[in-house]
């Protein structure tokens, strides 16, 4: 366990400077665009959410597509052994059965995609349904790319399900937050009108 954790850290730690550099570059580009005038309706909070979404996408690409070569992974396993299209089989056939640890990976995946769903829905003003569709496509795309990247990652329908569920949950939170902020701004308008009279 300790060895695999150190291998995991050494595999992904090298990408941190790249992510930080790209994050700064994207932030500068967005700042310049905002200074020159973004399209109408793109407030500072939406620009920030867009930056967070781009950063999230880059992080997900590193975590899901770098592969496991640095952790001893290889192409030794044939593709037929890596593909599992039976929903939830990974949960119910885990070594510990349906126990707490068998839910850790699904919960991590759901949480990871919920963050993406939240910032994407906030930045692009997507509905829960639209976010779920976009994250369905994203999940399928990631699994397809994992068939060709170096490593021995498993390609499962469960990962797509976690992506859709996480994205929808994040969008639900974004929708609730937007709903809370609207009455406050809407209440200010009648007050301003009555003051003008």
Automatic annotation (TrEMBL):
The keyword Transmembrane applies. It holds the Pfam family VanZ. The keyword Membrane applies. It comes from the Bacteria. Residues 53-176 form the VanZ-like domain. The chain crosses the membrane at residues 12-35, 47-71, 107-124, 131-148, 160-177. Keywords: Membrane, Transmembrane, Transmembrane helix. This is VanZ family protein. It comes from Micrococcus lylae.
């Amino acid at each position: 366990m300790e060895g695999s954790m150190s291998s995991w850290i050494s595999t992904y730690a090298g990408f941190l400077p790249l992510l930080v550099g790209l994050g700064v570059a994207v932030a500068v580009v967005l700042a310049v665009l905002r200074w020159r005038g973004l399209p109408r309706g793109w407030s500072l909070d939406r620009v920030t959410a867009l930056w967070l979404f781009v950063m999230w996408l880059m992080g997900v690409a590193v975590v899901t597509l770098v592969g496991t070569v640095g952790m001893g992974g290889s192409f030794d396993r044939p593709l037929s052994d890596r593909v599992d299209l039976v929903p939830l089989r990974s949960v119910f056939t885990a070594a510990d059965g349906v126990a707490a640890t068998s839910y850790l990976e699904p919960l991590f995946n759901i949480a990871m995609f919920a963050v993406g769903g939240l910032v994407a829905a906030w930045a692009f003003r997507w509905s829960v349904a639209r976010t779920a569709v976009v994250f369905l496509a994203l999940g399928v795309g990631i699994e397809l790319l994992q068939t060709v990247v170096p490593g021995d990652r498993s390609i499962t329908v469960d990962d797509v399900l976690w992506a859709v569920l996480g994205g929808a949950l994040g969008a639900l939170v974004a929708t609730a937050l937007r709903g809370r902020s609207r009455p406050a701004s809407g209440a200010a308008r009648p007050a301003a009108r009555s003051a003008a009279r």
